[in-house]
Structure formats: C-alpha cells, structure tokens
Design a protein that fits this description.
Shape: rod-shaped
Number of helices: 2
Distance between the termini: 46 Å
Strand content: under 5%
Order of helices and strands: HH
Number of strands: 0
Largest sheet: none
Oligomer: single chain
Structural class: mainly alpha
Length: 69
C-alpha cells in the first residue's frame, strides 16, 4: 500500500469513528487499525528522510572535495 493509499484509508477510518452509532468495541478496532496505519506511515517517512539525509551527506562531501580542486 502506498503512502497516499494509506492516508486515504486513515481518512475512511476517521469517518467511521465520527459515526456516533458505532459500537464501542468496533470503534476500538477501527482506532487500533488507524494507529497501526499511522505507525506504518511514520516508518515509511523515516526511511525516506534517512535516504534523503544520506544523499545530502554524499552530495555535500562530494562538493567539499571538488571545491578544493
């Protein structure tokens, strides 16, 4: 599931939670699913941030060595 698809699913779950007629146990299950999806999103974002930081570090070290040439 892509990050965008996950956000759409979280939106759907939020709509379900807004329904006052949803039984408590079902509300808890929906909440738990949403929290698991959010955790997955955080992991994806953390991975991307790490990759960007690694690329930026590589670019800055390459730039530093070429500036001295």
């Amino acid at each position: 599931m892509t990050l965008e698809e996950t956000f759409e699913k979280i939106d759907e779950l939020m709509e379900k939670l807004s329904d006052d007629s949803l039984p408590l146990e079902e509300s808890f299950a929906v909440y738990k699913e949403g929290m698991e999806l959010l955790d997955g999103c955080k992991k994806i974002i953390d991975d991307v941030e790490a990759k960007v930081a690694a690329l930026a570090d590589g670019a800055s070290s390459d730039g530093a060595s070429s500036d001295g040439d």
